[in-house]
Amino acid sequence: MILKKSKILSMFLIVTLLISVFPCSTFASTTSSLLSDNLLAVNEVNDMISEEQIALHGHIQEIETDELNVLSFRNNDGTTTKYLFSENIRYVNSNGNICDKSNDLFLQEDDSYQNLNNDIRLSFPNDISDGIALSYKDISISMTPRISSSHNKKSVSLAQLVTNGTRISKESVKYVGVFDANSDIIYTPGFSGFKEDIILEQAPKSNKIEFYINTNNSTLNNKGTHIEILDTASDIIGIISPITVISSNNVFSDGSYLVEQLLGTNKNENTYLVTLILDDAYLSYSSVEYPITVDPSIQILSFAGNEKQIYDASLYENFLNLTTGYIQYNNVGYLTNDKYGFSRSIIRFPTLENDIKFKMIPNERLSSVYLYLSCVACTNSTTVYACQYDGVANWLESTITSGYSPNYSTPSTSKVINSGTASSPTQYSFNITSIARNWKTDLATYPNNTVHDIDYGILLRNSNESNKDYGVRFASSDASTGLPYLSYTYTESTTFSVKNVYSNNFLQNVASSNS
Asked: Is this structure's pTM higher than 0.90?
């Protein structure tokens, strides 16, 4: 039987749509170049990988792996580059195929915008009063702003799709005139949740912003500065991040949460009134220029064991009791509030500590190690240094405070930071190869204790720590988009490092070979 041309065309369009909407590993073989001299095109790789990274490392072919937070590529010079992410950047779909996560939003029949290429599903309704929805496995959460009865609901804008210009998160949904005529909300999808930007065009009448949050098979645990999302076994499976407030002239503040549980419809469902409490004095400061942005986010911890793969925190000069492990930003330099003083940020890499390949590669075969950071605020050009952190080993985000030592030592690398905003972040790569090689040397020589141990991590410091006009903010591992990650490039070898199981030491001076 011969198919008509129209049927052939229809089948072609269906297959094309499936490939573009569901880019899973089933189709991976059709998107990887096998020509040794030709680099992969940017649309042939995961959204996390930029054209600059492809050119820097010479990626020519993606190497298939079942690790959901890892990407590996063969390069045109015979080396291999492996990327290690703090969150899952791929997922297993209902058919058992491994798929790249994407933040692309698609218009549905009910006029909502939804992400289709993620196991953490988001829905942004046409009318915000229907509630922003997030679902993952048997967990579902919806969030609806509490709108004052004096506010004309009809003036609340319907969903608008906007483009923020970055590849990692190209689209956001904007609602205009939500709490009053001078307040908007922008929601930006991320691989593990969404970022919420509440835009206040002028000083609000109240320092409180309220939402109703409904949860299914989960509960909220208010920690004051942030909110934990707990499953039915009371394990933490998500975070509503600490509140960060920033004015248009880069004056920072924070806030706190008040959570009141209301009556749920059944034992698995809970309803809460969640209040964001802002600093009333900050809202009326003459130095604060409007509009200001109130910036919480919701993140689901979907990776294996719910253990983060990159830890980070900011250490402040004048706020020694502050714990900042869950904040969305790594602040580097002087903040405009004397309450904090200057800040240095520290980053530790469990994903690298536990990577067997990294441990086994001899240093002479380790070509480079890069740390990628997204700058979301930079007033004036300045230099940021990445140094070996000398404070305390094996620190945790939940316990480290600014009272810990912000000390550092060489070797270090630096980068000139000259641009970056929350709406259009700029990615910077720090070459930390010399630091990483020291980690490997010390791992082999002094596996239990050394000042250059990988368990300490690195410290970021600003070349100008006394001028508020040179402060820099990077997205942290708790941000919804632009999270920090690592790459290392190496030459494959048939030689392996040998470790004594009794002494925990590696055998030294082993010759390596390509054969």
From this structure: no
